[in-house]
Amino acid sequence: METNEKMNISRRGFLKTAALVGAALAVQPTINKVKAANAAAGGEKALKKKGMQYRTLGTGKAAMEVSALGFGVMGMTYNRSQHPDKVQCIRLVHEAIDRGVTLFDTAIVYGPLNNEELAGEALAPYKGRVNVTTKFGHEVVNGKTTGRQDSRPETIRRYCEGSLKRLGVDSLALFYQHRFDPNVPVEDVAGTIADLIKEGKVQRWGMCEVAPETIRKAHAVCPLTAIQSEYHLMHRLVEENGVLDVCRELGIGFVPYSPLNRGFLGGNINEYTQFDPNNDNRQTLPRFQPEAIRMNTRIVNALQAFGRTRGMTSAQVALGWLLQKAPWIVPIPGTTKLSHLEENLRTLDFSLLADEWKQLEDEVAKIPVVGNRYNAEQQRQVGF
Predict the structure, then answer these.
(1) Model confidence over 127-185: pLDDT tens digits?
(2) Topology (CATH level 3) of domain 51-379
């Protein structure tokens, strides 16, 4: 009898322990999601460096604190001619982090795929302490782009899973729709992202190159953290078409890509520059044809003249002009050179008066920009 009683007690103890273990296993996925959310948001582990300035993209639950200047990873593998090997690129990303950069930008279509893989490998030691943003929308089949857009809900989910794996993260800090898909209602896109946020796979979202009315529709379904569009002294369309106004009104951040006009405003490109025919889209752009470059160099000269009496390079002038436009604007210049990284970040050391920036704008406005920013095919992909 005593033996049977002991056996019953042991059996009850086993069942009790098993029940507790089962409950813990059931709760663990939820805990993992919370951990992923905290990691993606930065939380207590977020890296911050003395001397770096920080800004907030978005508001409320969609808010995201990042360094005042981000880093565009694209050119390390894609569309920017020759680049250093992977080891050197990773080293430069780490140099950026050491200087306080906490926002890194990539996309599925860059490569395709290999840019995300590089970003994932480079940022692995800093998982949960810096933010990497990526983008979906351009169709990629068997590792190649098709030139079409695909933002169907099932495709977004598939791309999300792929990005999570390539970036080596548990949750995407910010997932942009890279280009508007005319075949999928933006409300369906926003609804899919909202579901992914509930599942813990995505923390926030954004859109690229879209019109104000599209932003409003999307934001009403799932609050946006950031809009990404081309914006610099040679392309100011977002000031005119209402995009910046709607971002200001709705509390959405703005991330200018190509803030140096694909390197041009840095002053290192001239009419004799040779672009890699196999890995550089600039050779296809009207604005980067020799005659256009020759004429547009007058704009670079104006930036250099403005910066010369203030100790600034033309790149610093271009970035400084963007930064002073609004505290919720975060440019993402890219580079493969440590000297250019240092130059870009030194922009944050300068503080100019509003009248000085107005002087610069007036000078640049006198010089007509020669050549469109995109060829006809690429322009058709822009959502306005």
Answers:
(1) 999 999 999 999 999 999 999 999 999 999 999 999 999 999 999 999 999 999 999 99
(2) TIM Barrel (3.20.20)
The pair of three-digit structure tokens given for residue 282, joined into one six-digit string: 């600039």
* Closest of 9, 53, 37 to residue 348, by C-alpha: 53
Helix (H) or strand (E) holding 246: helix 243-250
Question: Would you say 138 and 178 are in contact if contact means Cβ atoms under 8 Å apart?
Answer: yes
Tell me the sheet residues that pair with 133.
Answer: 105, 174
Query: What is the crossing angle of helices 243-250 and 212-221, to 10°?
Result: 30
Active site residues per annotation: 110
Nearest to 221 by CA among 243, 232, 201, 205: 205
The secondary structure element, H or E, covering residue 68 is none
Spans of all domains in the chain: 51-379
> Which one, of 304, 311, 292, 316, lies nearest residue 363 by Cα?
304
How far apart CA 103 and CA 345 sit, in angstroms, is 13
Q: Which residue has the tokens 């690429």?
A: 378
Task: Give pTM, 2 decimals.
Answer: 0.87
